Amino acid sequence: MSKRPAENWYVAQLRPQGLKRAEENLSRQGFQSFCPKRLESALRNGRRTNRFAPLFPGYLFIAFDPNVSGWTAINSTRGISRLIITDIRNPVPLPASFMAGLMARCDEEDVVGAPPDLSEGDRIRVLSGPFAEVIARIESLQEGERIQILMDLMGQQTRISLPRNRVEKL
């Protein structure tokens, strides 16, 4: 998909199971859509399977010019529940820096890039969850998508297991 970060981007809430239908219908209407995905691994029937899942489930980014008539048709597009805007007469786009950064992290299939190469002993920052913004050190790399880190918690070294995509290398 060719992405133009200079456009005004907005967010639409999807109907249940409406992603494919919304993307197809928006494309037919001449709108550009963007749905960043991430690689998700799960254990099913005793086997590990990988699949691509939306980074923001239930939402789709749509580019349009609010000064050109016809954009209100997005609200009645199959698969779309509603455009998330505060003022129907003057929609405010998402910050261009946010969209440019998000698109820069995605490859040509809109998959968010793999987490950085991590190794034992690396200093990392936890990005989300109850330990967000905590600086820690990688103790070991586990099978699959998890790492074990050592962090100072109440004056003691504590071991915690986290998914790789929730940390950034310092």
TrEMBL record:
Q: Which InterPro entries does the protein's record reference?
A: NGN-like_dom, NGN_dom_sf, NusG-like, Translation_prot_SH3-like_sf
Query: Could you tell me the Gene Ontology terms of the biological process aspect for this record?
Result: DNA-templated transcription elongation; transcription antitermination
GO cellular component entries: cytosol
Q: Which branch of life, at top level? A: Bacteria
CDD domains registered for this protein in UniProt: KOW_NusG, NGN_SP_RfaH
Which SUPFAM superfamilies does this one have? N-utilization substance G protein NusG, N-terminal domain, Translation proteins SH3-like domain
Q: Where is the NusG-like N-terminal domain?
A: 6-106
UniProt keywords (A-Z) are:
Transcription, Transcription antitermination, Transcription regulation
Q: List where the protein spans the membrane.
A: none
What name has this protein been given in UniProt? NusG-like N-terminal domain-containing protein
